[in-house]
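Colleagues,

For the teaching module next term, I've prepared a clean inverse folding example: a structure given as tokens, and then the sequence designed for it. I'd like students to try predicting residues themselves before seeing the answer, so please don't circulate the second half yet.
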């Protein structure tokens, strides 16, 4: 199961990338001044565009039968059979194992994928509660 980012985050990165590239064109074709500003703005614009493409193609969360993987930099993953607790507090879903803690922000999850994730979270929480002594 793949859970996507909200479109707002992707659109903001896309718009910032386009704006920085337009600014760099202004620096590049403008008169005088140093060239480092234009190259820095181009690099910044391309970075935002790459980030938007990465967020679009690699979804926020990937859940398989064996693990939960959060596709942020650096990638975080936790094996489902090693999870000792799952909690929700203040817009954060937290999954803990003996050596790893993963936090997932509810505000970053796309509205169409939120019910799927909440169902998964409730099933995992109830499973963990029944296995606790």
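(Answer key — instructors only)
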């Amino acid at each position: 199961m793949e859970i996507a980012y909200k479109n707002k985050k992707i659109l903001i990165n896309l718009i910032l990338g386009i704006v920085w590239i337009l600014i760099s064109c202004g620096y590049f074709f403008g008169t005088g001044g140093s060239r480092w500003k234009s190259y820095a703005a181009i690099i910044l614009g391309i970075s935002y565009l790459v980030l938007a493409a990465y967020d679009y193609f690699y979804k926020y969360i990937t859940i398989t039968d064996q693990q939960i993987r959060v596709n942020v930099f650096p990638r975080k993953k936790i094996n489902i059979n090693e999870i000792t607790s799952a909690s929700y507090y203040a817009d954060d879903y937290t999954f803990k194992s003996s050596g790893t803690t993963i936090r997932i922000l509810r505000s970053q999850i796309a509205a169409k994928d939120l019910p799927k994730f909440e169902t998964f979270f409730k099933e995992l929480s109830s499973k963990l509660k029944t296995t606790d002594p």
